[in-house]
Amino acid sequence: MPHAYPPPPCRRLGSLCQAIPVTVRASSQLRDARAGDHEATWLLGHTQQIEFGELWHHKRDLFVRAELHVPCKYLRVDGDQAECRAHGFAGPVPTAPPRQPQPRRLDGDHFRLVERGKLEARELIRLKPRRSLTVLGGGNPCATANCRTADHTRGAACCRDLQIEIMCDVEWTEQEALVRSRKSPYLCKIVRNDDDSLEVEIISTCGYLGEDGISCGLHGKRRADGRQAKPDLCRRWPVPTTDETLHPGCVFALPKPAAAGV
Questions:
Q1: DSSP E strand boundaries for 134-217
Q2: Mean pLDDT for the chain?
Q3: Of the candidates 212, 167, 189, 159, which has an alpha carbon nearest to the alpha carbon of residue 46?
Q4: Facing residues of 55 across strands?
Q5: In this predicted model, what pLDDT tens digit does every residue of 180-217 receive, in sequence order?
Q6: Is pLDDT at 73 greater than 70 in this prediction?
Q7: Per residue in 98-133, pLDDT tens?
Q8: Cβ(114)–Cβ(120) under 8 Å?
Q9: What is the pLDDT of residue 104?
Q10: What is the CA radius of gyration of the chain?
Q11: Most CB contacts within 10 A, which of 96, 123, 148, 170?
Q12: Is the bond into 238 cis (omega within 30 degrees of 0)?
């Protein structure tokens, strides 16, 4: 039977009903200043429901301030009025924290990506195509795949659904309650594997996607130092294995073995 977590100890309706501030580990076990660029670029690309702030290094890890714009599951809205189903507070719908634009695709071949632990605007260099790749244009199998995220949105689910690590010490009970009170499935599958953090799944579309919602603007480009612009995570995943958790309908999923005697 799932563990029942108490609601956060709120005192009134407020901005925390709409969004919560957190610290997220962007990359870990860094060998040098550039080692976390790909992973952090991937993370900071998912801007739909996550507003990213300051990046900083601590020891061998890279962290980022963020605000998760996912409402509380206890908030009930009826027109311009709201009620907290956990504590009984009622009043006007609480205002969400203001959001600043955070574009990742700029003009032409200019993009914002992480370089040496900082979010920078850079002009990327187009690569000459040597073969047909499966992640852009008509050759992208995700364009017609019947895959979907937990909110039942179909197509390119891997670019909209991600797992993040929120820094939350086991003694930070109020912070953990705020995280666990978010509305599912937009933030769900919350697991504590360590005493200092929570792993969660959040739906937040990547800002590097094109207008078709499928093609990646970083594909086929490299940085000035020669590295691929597209994060390693996106270029090597998904790897079809029998124990990999994939989205429903993913074209990369291996077929299930037939039952004995069939």
A1: 161-167, 187-194, 197-203
A2: 88
A3: 159
A4: 64
A5: 999 999 999 999 999 999 999 999 999 999 888 888 89
A6: yes
A7: 999 999 999 999 999 999 999 999 999 998 765 444
A8: yes
A9: 97
A10: 20
A11: 148
A12: yes
Collapse the DSSP code of 137 into the 3-class scheme (helix H, G, I; strand E, B; otherwise coil) and give the result: helix
What does residue 138 show for φ and ψ, rounded to 5 degrees? -65, -20
Q: What distance lies between CA 34 and its chain's CA centroid?
A: 21
In eight-state DSSP terms, residue 81 is E
What pLDDT is attached to residue 198?
98
What is the domain partition of the chain in residue ranges?
15-132+139-236
3-state secondary structure of 41: helix
Cβ-count burial 228-254 (b if 16+ within 10 Å, e if not): bbbbeebeeeeeeeeeeebbeebbbbe
Termini Cα distance of the chain? 35
The pLDDT of residue 150:
80
Question: By CB neighbour count within 10 A (0-12 exposed, 13-18 middle, 19+ buried), where does 7 fall?
Answer: middle
Closest CA to 58 of 75, 36, 79, 82: 36
Question: Quick one: residue 47, left, alpha or beta (phi over 0 = left, psi -120 to 50 = alpha)?
Answer: alpha
User: What tens digit of pLDDT does each residue of 82-95 get?
Assistant: 999 999 999 999 99
Contact (Cβ atoms closer than 8 angstroms) between residue 130 and residue 183: no
Query: What are φ and ψ of residue 137, in 5° steps?
Result: 65, -150
